[in-house]
């Protein structure tokens, strides 16, 4: 099903492209925010330590005594998956 906005057709291909662009943009922004959290504020605002402790306890046991240093130097990759469910117009 195609949608028309301003005389232009918005089809599934364009919607998928928009989703991919959102994913890339949001991932990059989130990674920047995490880097700022790590380097400027030295704060684990996203509870990364808790996630490692919960889901990778063996790794956490190895790094827990040196967490502050590990946190400052770790690389964080963010993966975002958006889904445009509907298109509407605002008057």
Distance between the termini: 22 Å
Major sheet description: 2 strands, antiparallel
> Helix content range of the residues, please?
55-70%
Outline, from the CA principal axes?
A: elongated
**Proportion in β-strands:** 5-15%
- Enumerate the spans where pLDDT stays under 50 for 5 or more consecutive residues: none
Please identify the structural class as seen in this structure.
Answer: mainly alpha
How would you write the strand order of the largest sheet? 1-2
- Counted by DSSP, the helix tally is 4
Order of helices and strands: EEHHHH
SS elements, strand count: 2
The whole-number mean of residue pLDDT values reads 89
Rg over C-alpha atoms, rounded to the nearest angstrom: 20 Å
């Amino acid at each position: 099903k195609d949608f028309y906005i301003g005389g232009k057709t918005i089809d599934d291909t364009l919607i998928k492209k928009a989703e991919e662009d959102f994913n890339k943009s949001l991932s990059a922004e989130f990674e920047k925010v995490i880097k700022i959290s790590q380097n400027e504020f030295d704060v684990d605002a996203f509870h990364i330590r808790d996630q490692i402790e919960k889901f990778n306890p063996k790794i956490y046991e190895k790094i827990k005594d040196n967490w502050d240093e590990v946190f400052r130097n770790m690389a964080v990759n963010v993966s975002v998956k958006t889904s445009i469910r509907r298109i509407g117009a605002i008057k």
